[in-house]
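To whoever picks this up:

The parser on our side crashed when reading a file containing two proteins. I've narrowed it down to the boundary between the first structure block and the second sequence. Both blocks are reproduced below exactly, byte for byte. First block:
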Amino acid sequence: MIHIALPKGRLGEKAYEIFKKLGYGCPEIEEDNRKLIFENRENDVCYFWAKPSDVSVYVERGAADIGIVGKDILLEHGSDVYELLDLGMGKCRMAVAGIKGQRPAADKTLRVATKFPNITRNYYAAQSREIEIIQLNGSIEIAPLLGLSDVIVDIVETGTTLKENNLEPFETIVPISARLIANKASFKFQYDKIHALCEKIQAERNAES
């Protein structure tokens, strides 16, 4: 049986619909109940919902064989898993942004507010840029407006929130989308099942494009 970790929310629901369409459905997961784990022995699958940032932990530690997770989480956590497919869902980008028309001087320590300290640290280390990381958990956009930081590093989808707060993206760090990941031991011992699933997903994506 393949154990699959799905992120709670719209992304996980879209991912489940893909699995269901390819013959890995589990009717129990669609029922109105409070169960946490859902099995369908006929289709040889077991699903469970997890907080998006926890999916890679479940997969890395073997509680799940495969899972769906955003590229941002993989980069931030440095998860020791196999990244099998880019599912092309949940597309956005990790970007540096700041007050419109006010790019910080390059000769001073850059104050960066972010929820993603590891991505930020690695990005600026590659540029040999000296930074001070200010870790926040929400409302990142107000940090430069209040003078707390020079710039922010955050996920940008449409850019509407930035525009409404007189901010603009300066640089794109990396494109973000949902990835199918696998536990390294599971991929070895359940290779045929996992590989077959990947091929079906890829074939479905090719047919849609």
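<<boundary where parser fails>>
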Amino acid sequence: MVTIKDVAERAGVSISTVSRVVNGTAKVKGTKHEAVLKAMGELNYQPSSVARALVGNRSSMIGLVVHDLADPFFGSLARGVTAQAAASGLQTMTTEGQHRAELEAAAIRSLISRRCDGIVVHTLALSNQELLDAIGDCPAVIVNRKVPGIEDRCLWFDNRLTGYLAASHLLEKGHRCIGWIGRNEDISDNRDRFSGFCKALEEVGVDGTAAPQQSGAATAEGGYQAALELLKKHPDLTAIQAYNDVMAAGCLRALHERDYRLPDDFSVIGVDDVFLGQFVYPQLTTVRYPIEEIGRTAVRMIEGLLADKPVDKGAEFQPAGFQPQLVVRDSVSCWADVSG
């Protein structure tokens, strides 16, 4: 699908200049006007009705695509998007993609058809090109993903460093018999967090890929079942690193049922720093994923795109994306035997 960005690049002008020519909202100098028309003809560009509406008839609506609103992580993302939108006098419309390509594409199309001024998108199943095709000309910010060609509209998170920080904390506390509980979907977040886990173990001479592993649904129930299975197979474990906080909460329940004294007998660490981590027992040590702030930033970026202003990703954003932070609470303790 040819987009307004393609026309701008072919004509050698800004996207806003192409928009003004397409919508007739302001005069454009003759040479630039001709260049835009020529590029549109060469590329057979057809302006979408949605793109025209975004210039002249704002809907005051921001769209949001998430995996699953029942997941506290995506609830936090929605809270950030909604709060920032409300502060700007905007409403929010949210849809789910369930990490299935056809549902993700349908969710994006649905929001665009409802003339959202812009959309915040968290998708993992769509390929980069499929995602670009689905978005088309709609002002969009992509969360938790870096898409080549539109990096300036992406907000990503260093999941490898996340896995590394969590495992390093367990290792610093003396643990060597560490199990990994991942999610049962082959997604980049899971692969990257496990890669960071392996790197940390390798630095102390432990083969991370050979560490005890179990997968499950990325839910409390999934973490609970995975922990029971892992403990049955590997009773010598002293710690578990879970893919996220929700799965870690399930691990804690499994350990309580097996009469472990936590954290004296066993340590657990999660990822995300969602609100429930402070209300389980013991309070969960985790690695913070600033997803609510990312949601707020995404809305500010959309407002910048609509106003044709430079994109501001905020002070927390670094060249490698948003950085994770270790949050130490009570679920990890020192392990006496460090001989391994």
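After patching the parser it read the second block fine. The chain is about 45% helix and 15% strand. The domain at 4-47 is CATH 1.10.260.40 (434 Repressor (Amino-terminal Domain)).
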